[in-house]
Amino acid sequence: MTNQSKATPAAASEEYEREPVPASAQKGWTSFLGMYAGEHAAGTEFVIGPLFLTAGVSAFDLLIGLLLGNFMAVLSWRYLTAELAVKYRTTLYFHLEKISGRNLVIVYNLANGILFCFLAGSMITVSATAVGIPFNMDMPKLTDTMPNGITWVVIVVGLGVVISLIAAKGYNTVSKAANWMSPVIVLGFVAAGIVAANQLGVSSFSDFWNIWGEGTEPFPGQIKYTFWHVAIWSWFCNAAVHIGMSDLTVFRFAKKASSGWTTAAGMYVGHYMAWIAACLLYAVYLRAPETQAILASGEAPSVAPGPLAYNALGIFGVIVVILAGWTTANPTIYRAGLAFQAIMPKVSTFWVTILAGALATIAGLFPAFAMKLLDFVAVYGFILAPVGAIIVFEHFFAKNWGIQTFYAEKSGIGFNIAVFVAWVFSVGLFYFISVQKGVFLSFLTLPAWLLCGFLYLFISKLTQKKGL
């Protein structure tokens, strides 16, 4: 078995889209530390933190649930994603092409790239709420779906252009931007949390705990989150990139698999500290008389990050929100660009990333992606994660099951039926269960992932030709 493949002209760049990353291009753990801290202590955190409050979480459910869920996410990155990334050193898209065939991987890459663009669009939305403050722009409400004015459109488009150009410069530029911006963002979250705690009159741990207390009823249109909702959602909110193997694309540059531990910087600085800090900001906002009037009328108030941060930190808060959106949107658009590049290998990475940025900007015009971020992230991970199980199960179990690895590459087929049936059946079955039985979708991500892996092995055993 070989991982080498002749690169296309577009792949002969330093991005190594269709060949393993050579030793000369590999990077130490510090390159990933800043990127993960910046990407996960970022714009979406300003939305996700408040959304936990709208779901009526209790103190125990939030603080301990996040502790467990984020730990499981770090383990997934370290012992699955990073391990396989340093062994094969190829992008997810090229790796999957060798298993599933060119024709089938186009379908996956298209879905992956589009979903990444929607996610990046929600981050552009977040930054736009900060840029709009000096212009007295109307902020999107929790129930808004459409653009609310020309000012909103102009700001989102301007931000999208800048973010897309940075992402199109490639991995090195994305990593450098994250390393420069992430300390400022982390400082902003810490400062925002301290200021908000003071505004809430917190002088002891019991005061801090009582901000959430035993929880409340969820806001209109939201569901009640328990301990397991918080823990499982926080584990699988990034399911597409860890157990879904999308971050093979990032960790293929790592010298050692131990670089996977750097994701803890994102999980505990971003998905723990930053979410809680954003919760505190929103708790301050909820005590305002005008917010209480909105709630009394039976409506859900806005969760726009810009005004929340401005209320706590002034202009510095605005800057933090803008930078936070950039550092998350940049690597997300970069990943989307690589997905599109796998579909169009003769087009340069620069231009496919610009295409991804344009789609993300269009998505950013619609506030629904940010305002329904908890739901969208759950769906996004649920759809894409099972494909990662195919890569994981093939790596660990192919020999025991007697199936051929990288079957599409070695047999010359363009469409591996085992991959298609395993993915579509597992996603379709558990999504049906979620809709019909009202089961929280994140609860079904792991069952769908496991079923997809086992189905792939079983169907491959039945369909693969011997002697390759």
Automatic annotation (TrEMBL):
Residues 1-22 are annotated as: Disordered. Coiled coil: none annotated. Keywords: Membrane, Transmembrane, Transmembrane helix. The chain crosses the membrane at residues 106-130, 150-168, 180-205, 225-244, 265-288, 308-329, 350-370, 376-393, 413-433, 439-459. The keyword Transmembrane applies. This is Purine-cytosine permease. It comes from Imperialibacter roseus.
